[in-house]
Amino acid sequence: MPIYTPPTEDMQYLLHEVMQVSQSDIPGYDELERDFTAAVLEEAGKISAEVLAPLNTVGDRQGCALENDAVRTPEGFKSAYDQMCEGGWIGLDADPAYGGQGMPYLLNTAVGEMFVSANMAFNMYQGLTHGAMSAIHVHGSDEQKETYLPKMIAGTWSGTMNLTEPHCGTDLGLIRTKAEPQADGSYAITGTKIWISAGEHDLTDNIVHLVLAKIPGGPDGVKGISLFIVPKFLPDADGNPGQRNALKCVGLEHKMGIHGNATCVMSYEGATGFLVGEAHKGMRAMFTMMNEARIGVGLQGYAQGVVAYQNAVAWAQERLQGRAVTGPANPDGPADSIMVHPDVRRNLMHQKSFVEGARAFAFWGAEMIDRAHRAEDAQAEAMISLLTPVIKGFLTDKGFETTVLAQQTYGGTGFTRDAGAEQFVRDARITMIYEGTNGIQSLDLVGRKLGQNGGQAVMAFFDLVKGFIKENEADEELKADFLDPLKAASKDLQEAAMYFMAEGMKNPANALAGSYDFLHLFGHVCLGLMWAKMARASRAALAAGTDNPAFHETKLATGRYYMARQLPATALHLARIKSGGDRVMALDAAAF
Ligand SMILES: Cc1cc2nc3c(=O)[nH]c(=O)nc-3n(C[C@H](O)[C@H](O)[C@H](O)COP(=O)(O)OP(=O)(O)OC[C@H]3O[C@@H](n4cnc5c(N)ncnc54)[C@H](O)[C@@H]3O)c2cc1C
Question: Which residues approach ligand 1 with their CB closer than 6 A?
Fold first, then answer.
C-alpha cells in the first residue's frame, strides 16, 4: 500500500519563512499566523492521509459504474465526500456572503495539494465544483448566486464544466450544442458533450452543469458561444432539487488513469438552461473557470510528483542491492540499500528538487491571485495571467516526469501494480492533456500572453528577477550557487523573448515552433527564482541560529542541485528556439 506523508513542515516553511505571509499587505493575510496555518494544514493533512489516501487504490481498482442513468462511485467515496463537506473544506476560500470561509486562495492551494496527492480522482469532484462556483460568482446574476452558491459551497450540490464535444476540444468555435430561447427567458439546450469530469455521480443531491452552447443566429466561431447553468434537477420554489432536467449521462469512458473520477458522455435533450452573463460572451465567463482550473491542474501535476517521490524514497531506503563504490554501508547485511548508488541519488534529487521548487511556484502563483483579487492589483493580475500557462504546462510535464522517475527508482516493482507507483504515472498523465493540452498552453504563452499590453508583464517579470539578484548579491555564497545561475537562465529567457519579437513577426512559424521550449525555459527560470528565494530564507535562518539547521542545510543542498543540474536546461531550450521554424516544418505532411 503506498504511503502519503503530508508535507506540512515544508508548507509552513514556505508560508512563514520564505513568503512571510502574516506580514503581507494583502487583505486577509494577517489571519495567516503560524499557529493558525499549522492547525489548518494539520487537519487537512489528517483527512488526506487517513481518509483520502487509503481510497486511492480502491478508486483505481473499482472505477465508476453506470447503471441505468446513474453513476456509482467507488466504495468509500461517498463517506469521504461527506467528511469533506462536514469539515467545510469545499468552501474554504469561498465568499462568506454565501457560506464560505473566506480564506485566502493561498491556503486553499496548500490544502488542495494534500488532497490531490492523497487522491487525485476523488478530489476532482470538488475541484470542478470550485471552478464552477467561481464562474457563477463572477458572472452570474444575484439570483443565480443565491440559488446555487450556498449549496455548492456546502458541497451538497457539485459543479462541472461542459466544453468538449465529439468533434471539438481545442477548437471550441466548432461547438454545435444549441441553446434555443424559451418564452420564460430560459433556454432549451440540445447537444452532446464528451469527457465531462464528474458529469454524473452519487455524491451530491444535485449537479450544476456549466455548459457552452450557441444561440441560433449568433456570430460564428467562438464569438457566438454563450454559457449556461443547466442543473440536473431544476431548483423548486424553495431552492431545493425539483423536477429532473432533460439531460443524462449516456456513457463512461474507460481511461488510462483517474478511474475513481467519472468521465461522462452527457446528452442534453432540450434541457432547461439559464444564461450566465451576457449572450455570446460565454468564452469570457468560461475563462474565469478555465484560468483557475489551469492553475489547479498545474497543482495536480506536481502533487502527483510529491506522492510518487515520497514512495520512491521509502522504497530506496529499504531495497538492498549491490554495494557502495566507496565500500559497504551495511556490512552486516547481504547488500547495501540502493540509496548508496549515485545514479539512484541523482534520480531522487531530480524528483525532490522539482517538487519542492514546484510547491514554491504554486504558492507564489496563489499569492499573486490573492493580490490580484483581494488587493485589486492590476499588475498582479497581469503577471498571473502571463504565468498561468507556465504553471499548467511546466508543472504537469515535469510532474509526470517525476512520477516516471519515481517508478524507475523501484526497478521492476514499479511496473507491477502492488507498489502503486504505476498508478501515479497513469493518473498524472491526463494533467498534460486536459484543460487545454500543454502544446496549447505554450501557444497561449507565446501567441497571446507574451505580447499583451506591449509585453508589460514579461518586462515586469524580468525586472523582478533582476531586482532580486541585485538586492542579494552581496551574499557571495548565495551569488555563486544561486544568483549567478539564475542570471544566466534569465538571460536565456530574455534572448528567446527577443528572438520571438524579431523573428516571429517575419514568420509566425518561428515563434510557434519554439513555443513549447519557451514554456519550459520560462518554467525553469521560475523554479530557479523560487530556489534562490528559498536559499535566501534558509541562509537567513541558519545565520539566526535556527533550532532546525538540518532542514535548512537540506534545502540549500537540494537547491544547489536544481541550479547546477536542472536549470542549465535553459541553454538547450534557447538553442532549439533559435533554430527557428524551418527545421520543424521541413517535411511535407505526406512525408511522415
Ligand atoms: C479524462 C478527461 C477528462 C476531461 N474532462 C473534461 C471536462 O470536464 N470538461 C470538458 O469540457 N472537457 C474535458 N476533457 C477534454 C479535454 O479538455 C480535451 O481532451 C483537451 O482540451 C484536448 O482536446 P481534444 O482531445 O479534442 O484534442 P484536439 O483538439 O483534437 O487536439 C489534438 C492534438 O492537436 C493539438 N492541437 C490542436 N489544435 C492545435 C493548434 N491550433 N495548434 C497547435 N496544436 C494544436 C493538440 O495540442 C493535441 O495534441 C477531458 C478529457 C479527458 C481525457
Answer: 161-164, 169-170, 195-197, 255, 263, 430, 433-437, 439-440, 443
